[in-house]
């Protein structure tokens, strides 16, 4: 444990008495690797090994595994000095040696002082964040648009996503926060309503977070060429930005939207129920948790499309359009007996219920792990009918654990039987879930781009042809870990570096005097 404490030490002292060290997840870590520890934003992880600065070993309940250190932070009550927490709990009661609460000048209680600290942190981090967004928009995007010879608009959309929309939104949000900020008595500030007012607008982060892996991949591709490395460094130097690489700056919005619920949880902890801001902060915490949950859910859905593509590539004799054309979520799967007209012929089949469609497959007689595509049913046209045990009028046969899919347009009827009553109930609930998922996607505007669909199918096709499972890699996470940008060679004159960030123009004497170099000014 001593080794762990050494690695985890920060400007705030962490106890080195052998006590357990906990970290708090900043955002979801979704994994398909058995050796990795998956968790959701806000989860508390017991850190068991931190000898590697990038990947730590931790435990949540009975699950253990590796996780990226940059995805977590030390729990608040560990990385803040204990003098910030003067109230001690003894015998289930707070120390109230005086009038019931310890006070700090002007009648402020300890809780008020802690609330002041949280309010100040929210305001200061918001101002810092605005500066980061401004630097990205003016220091990078503005200059990239001058270099049509280096970047297309499509590339810029991939790299920066909708960060300009986020910048505009956050500028309005920080103004609203500052209006609610009580400079004389910060603990009396009522900021909860600001988060409630902007909860819908914060959903624009979903698009950014979903695009972020694509941004990392495109940056990784471009920075293999020195010209782009020097260009991005020139942008950073001329904007006088801190010594972080572009991918580090682009990670900030992902971290920010996941931090709001953590900040609001801290604020609620130090807000008295009698405070005028209490109900709004409580509602804001739930609202921002929902925003983060929606973003995480969309992220999970996008990661699932690779699994769906791989599943389809394993199905023999596939016909018709790819499953990803209409679907992006596997709701349920299992074996059912399908009964068809006109002879009421029964067939044992495997069924896979996706959003919008039900895919039917047949197992190989000898190799039961091999599936053959047989048909599919459009769920948008279907209504589900529960069938009582006994003789069915439509098919004129006795059935048990049965249900029907009835097409409203064609009056076509499909009859299915499960082996057990509980299996039938699971299928009926799955059909309800499928309709809810479709409705939710329509309400939230969730969709998968054609580029994402094609890339998923291409990856699955490559893997299928090689006949070998794809090795577990973490290109996205590995890219996130690189916080240090490439160092510019000392042999390259600074003038040449700056020139990379300037659109081509006619030769002039302007570049001959380095002291007058202001290539980004009009």
Automatic annotation (TrEMBL):
<feature type="domain" description="SH3">
    <location>
        <begin position="18"/>
        <end position="77"/>
    </location>
</feature>
<keyword id="KW-0728">SH3 domain</keyword>
<dbReference type="InterPro" id="IPR001331">
    <property type="entry name" value="GDS_CDC24_CS"/>
</dbReference>
<dbReference type="GO" id="GO:0005737">
    <property type="term" value="C:cytoplasm"/>
</dbReference>
<keyword id="KW-0344">Guanine-nucleotide releasing factor</keyword>
<dbReference type="InterPro" id="IPR011993">
    <property type="entry name" value="PH-like_dom_sf"/>
</dbReference>
<protein>
    <recommendedName>
        <fullName>Rho guanine nucleotide exchange factor 4</fullName>
    </recommendedName>
</protein>
<dbReference type="InterPro" id="IPR001849">
    <property type="entry name" value="PH_domain"/>
</dbReference>
<feature type="domain" description="DH">
    <location>
        <begin position="114"/>
        <end position="298"/>
    </location>
</feature>
<dbReference type="InterPro" id="IPR035899">
    <property type="entry name" value="DBL_dom_sf"/>
</dbReference>
<feature type="region of interest" description="Disordered">
    <location>
        <begin position="85"/>
        <end position="107"/>
    </location>
</feature>
<dbReference type="GO" id="GO:0035556">
    <property type="term" value="P:intracellular signal transduction"/>
</dbReference>
<dbReference type="GO" id="GO:0005085">
    <property type="term" value="F:guanyl-nucleotide exchange factor activity"/>
</dbReference>
<dbReference type="Pfam" id="PF00018">
    <property type="entry name" value="SH3_1"/>
</dbReference>
<dbReference type="Pfam" id="PF00621">
    <property type="entry name" value="RhoGEF"/>
</dbReference>
<feature type="compositionally biased region" description="Basic and acidic residues">
    <location>
        <begin position="85"/>
        <end position="96"/>
    </location>
</feature>
<dbReference type="Pfam" id="PF22697">
    <property type="entry name" value="SOS1_NGEF_PH"/>
</dbReference>
<dbReference type="InterPro" id="IPR000219">
    <property type="entry name" value="DH_dom"/>
</dbReference>
<dbReference type="InterPro" id="IPR001452">
    <property type="entry name" value="SH3_domain"/>
</dbReference>
<dbReference type="InterPro" id="IPR055251">
    <property type="entry name" value="SOS1_NGEF_PH"/>
</dbReference>
<keyword id="KW-0963">Cytoplasm</keyword>
<feature type="domain" description="PH">
    <location>
        <begin position="329"/>
        <end position="436"/>
    </location>
</feature>
<dbReference type="InterPro" id="IPR036028">
    <property type="entry name" value="SH3-like_dom_sf"/>
</dbReference>
């Amino acid at each position: 444990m001593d080794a762990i404490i050494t690695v985890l030490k920060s400007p705030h002292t962490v106890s080195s008495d052998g006590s357990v060290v906990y970290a708090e997840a900043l955002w979801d870590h979704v994994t398909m690797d058995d050796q990795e520890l998956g968790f959701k934003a806000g989860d508390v992880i017991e850190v068991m090994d931190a000898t590697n600065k990038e990947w730590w070993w931790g435990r949540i309940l009975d699950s253990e595994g590796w996780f990226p250190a940059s995805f977590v932070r030390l729990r608040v009550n560990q990385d803040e000095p204990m003098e910030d927490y003067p109230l001690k709990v003894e015998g289930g009661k707070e120390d109230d040696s005086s009038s019931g609460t310890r006070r700090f000048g002007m009648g402020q209680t300890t809780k008020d002082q802690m609330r002041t600290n949280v309010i100040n942190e929210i305001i200061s981090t918001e101002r810092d964040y605005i500066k980061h967004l401004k630097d990205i928009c003016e220091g990078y995007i503005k200059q990239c648009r001058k270099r049509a010879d280096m970047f297309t608009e499509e590339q810029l959309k991939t790299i920066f996503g909708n960060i300009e929309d986020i910048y505009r939104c956050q500028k309005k949000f920080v103004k609203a926060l500052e209006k609610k900020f009580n400079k004389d008595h910060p603990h009396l500030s009522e900021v909860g309503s600001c988060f409630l007012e902007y909860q819908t607008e914060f959903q624009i982060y979903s698009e950014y977070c979903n695009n972020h892996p694509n941004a990392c991949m495109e940056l990784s591709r471009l920075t293999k060429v020195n010209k782009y490395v020097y260009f991005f460094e020139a942008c950073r130097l001329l904007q006088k930005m801190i010594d972080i690489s572009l991918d580090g700056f682009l990670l900030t919005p992902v971290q920010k939207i996941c931090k709001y619920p953590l900040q609001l949880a801290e604020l609620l902890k130090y807000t008295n129920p009698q405070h005028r801001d209490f109900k709004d902060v409580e509602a804001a915490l739930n609202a921002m948790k929902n925003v983060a949950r929606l973003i995480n859910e969309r992220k999970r859905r996008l990661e699932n499309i690779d699994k769906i593509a791989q599943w389809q590539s394993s199905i023999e004799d596939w016909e018709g359009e790819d499953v990803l054309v209409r679907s992006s979520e596997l709701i349920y799967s299992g074996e059912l007996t399908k009964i068809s007209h006109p002879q009421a012929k029964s067939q044992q089949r495997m069924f896979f219920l996706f959003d919008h469609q039900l895919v039917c497959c047949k197992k190989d007689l000898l190799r039961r792990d091999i599936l053959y595509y047989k048909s599919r049913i459009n769920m948008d046209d279907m209504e589900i009918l529960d069938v009582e045990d006994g003789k069915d009028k439509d098919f004129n046969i006795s059935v048990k654990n049965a249900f029907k899919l009835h097409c409203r347009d064609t009056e076509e009827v499909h009859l299915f039987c499960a082996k057990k009553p509980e299996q039938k109930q699971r299928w009926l609930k799955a059909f309800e879930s499928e309709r809810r998922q479709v409705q939710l996607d329509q309400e939230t505007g969730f969709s998968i781009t054609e580029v994402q669909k094609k890339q998923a199918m291409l990856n699955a096709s490559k893997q299928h042809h090689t006949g070998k499972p794809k090795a577990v890699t973490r290109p996205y996470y590995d890219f996130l870990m690189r916080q240090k940008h490439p160092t510019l060679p000392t042999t390259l004159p600074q003038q040449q570096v700056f020139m990379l960030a300037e659109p081509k123009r006619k030769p002039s004497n302007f570049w001959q005097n380095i002291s007058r170099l202001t290539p980004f000014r009009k």
